[in-house]
């Protein structure tokens, strides 16, 4: 067979490595012939869904045969009020991933440059390559973004700068003054994306809420998600905040019904359940302390993290350690695809899950 159409695919796709999601537990257990395993691989919320979200989802079933509100009117209104912006500033996404992808489709194309840091979240290069843009990656400093190096790599062709704050998979974060100065110094025609997927977890007084700067920088796009601290990863809902003219452009490429009615209802219910959010963050804080202490007891280095995960330097190839952990029913995430072959990323779980991970890691090592 002569698949001549393969040569006709968009140019950036030939070398694009697709995003590799964590395996579902059920599939893994089938493969390994085990049961009762725990998943600490995808930075999910270990609390399970909020009761308020469950109720909202049940109520939504009556409208299952109807299309969702394509404009997500109520959700955008509530999000806008929380951030003290106009609803015209809000772009909803099928996860914040979707918004990142819209940004690439609007502001990048062949010949344009996409600028991000080494170890930055994998979707930035993926979405950029899909639209044929040229990738520009600056070396990290202490695993984090080197804003000076990023500034120095700006060219006439730069279309988008991507900054994850905190970053995944490293958990590194940028402080208020450094980030603001960087955005100030970026040319006004270059879009600066500040991806705040893990915002709610950060407990540092110096940590910026970049959405407060939207009025100052029309080229700023801030993304947030309901997948992490709000516990809605399965439903896929996130959003972008930007100048209304930017949101207007993003909405031109947005699929009309990209956030379904269950996701919209759940996100609204999640926003009302501040107690759930508080508990999520509290459990994360405690779990982080537990993991850090355990990892230190094992004599291992780790990257201090502001997110809901910890990336540990095993000092040796993490691949076999990951495999051995799997056999003990503990699923974590090796990050060799990020150029960190000795590191293992573990998401913060419930106390018993963290203890089980530490115990298994101790056994394996
Ligand atoms: C830094 C960062 N940004 C964005 C996302 C996308 O999340 P979602 O599409 O679930 O909102 C993730 C998911 O892990 C992430 O780590």
Question: In short, what is this structure?
Answer:
The protein is an alpha/beta fold and 365 residues long. Helices cover 37% and strands 16% of the residues.
In total, how many beta strands? 13
Q: Beta-strand level of the residues, as a percent range?
A: 15-25%
Overall structural class, as computed from helix and strand content, comes to alpha/beta
Count of alpha/pi helices: 12
Largest pleated sheet: 7 strands, mixed
Radius of gyration: 21 Å
Describe the protein.
The protein is an alpha/beta fold. The protein is built from 12 helices and 13 strands. It is 37% helix and 16% strand. The strands form 3 sheets. It has a 7-stranded mixed sheet, with helices on both faces. A 4-stranded antiparallel sheet has the order 9-10-13-12, covered by helices on one side. Strands 1-11 form a two-stranded parallel ribbon. Helix 5 links the parallel strand 3 and strand 4 (134-138). The longest helix has 24 residues, at 274-297. The radius of gyration is 21 Å and the shape is globular. It starts with 24 loop residues before the first helix and ends with a helix. The relative contact order is 0.16. The mean pLDDT is 96.
């Amino acid at each position: 067979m002569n698949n001549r159409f393969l040569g006709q695919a968009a140019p950036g796709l030939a070398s694009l490595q697709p995003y590799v999601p964590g395996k579902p537990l059920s599939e893994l257990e089938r493969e390994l012939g085990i049961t009762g395993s725990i998943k600490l691989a995808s930075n999910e919320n270990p609390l399970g869904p909020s009761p308020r979200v469950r109720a909202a989802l049940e109520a939504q079933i009556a409208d299952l045969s109807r299309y969702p509100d394509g404009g997500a009117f109520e959700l955008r209104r509530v999000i806008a009020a929380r951030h003290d912006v106009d609803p015209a500033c809000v772009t909803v996404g099928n996860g914040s991933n979707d918004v990142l992808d819209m940004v690439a489709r609007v502001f990048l194309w062949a010949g344009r440059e996409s600028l991000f840091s080494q170890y930055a979240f994998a979707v930035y290069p993926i979405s950029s390559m899909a639209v044929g843009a040229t990738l520009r990656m600056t070396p990290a400093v202490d695993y984090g973004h080197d804003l000076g190096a990023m500034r120095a790599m700006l060219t006439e062709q730069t279309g988008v700068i991507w900054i994850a704050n905190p970053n995944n998979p490293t958990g590194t974060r940028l402080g208020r003054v450094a980030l603001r100065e960087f955005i100030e110094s970026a040319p006004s025609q270059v879009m600066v994306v500040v991806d705040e997927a893990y915002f709610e977890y950060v407990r540092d007084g110096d940590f910026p809420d970049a959405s407060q700067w939207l009025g100052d920088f029309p080229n700023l796009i801030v993304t947030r998600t309901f997948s992490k601290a709000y516990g809605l990863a399965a439903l896929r809902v996130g959003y972008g905040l930007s100048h209304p003219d930017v949101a207007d452009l993003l909405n031109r490429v947005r699929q009309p019904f990209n956030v379904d009615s269950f996701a919209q209802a759940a996100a609204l219910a999640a926003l009302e359940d501040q107690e759930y959010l508080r508990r999520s963050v509290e459990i994360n804080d405690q779990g982080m302390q537990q993991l850090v202490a355990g990892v230190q007891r094992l004599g291992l280095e780790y990257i201090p993290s502001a997110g809901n995960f910890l990336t540990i330097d095993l000092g040796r190839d993490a691949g076999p350690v990951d495999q051995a952990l799997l056999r003990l029913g503990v699923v974590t995430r090796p990050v060799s695809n990020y150029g960190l072959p000795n590191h293992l990323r573990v998401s913060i779980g419930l106390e018993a899950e963290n203890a089980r991970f530490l115990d298994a890691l101790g056994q394996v090592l």
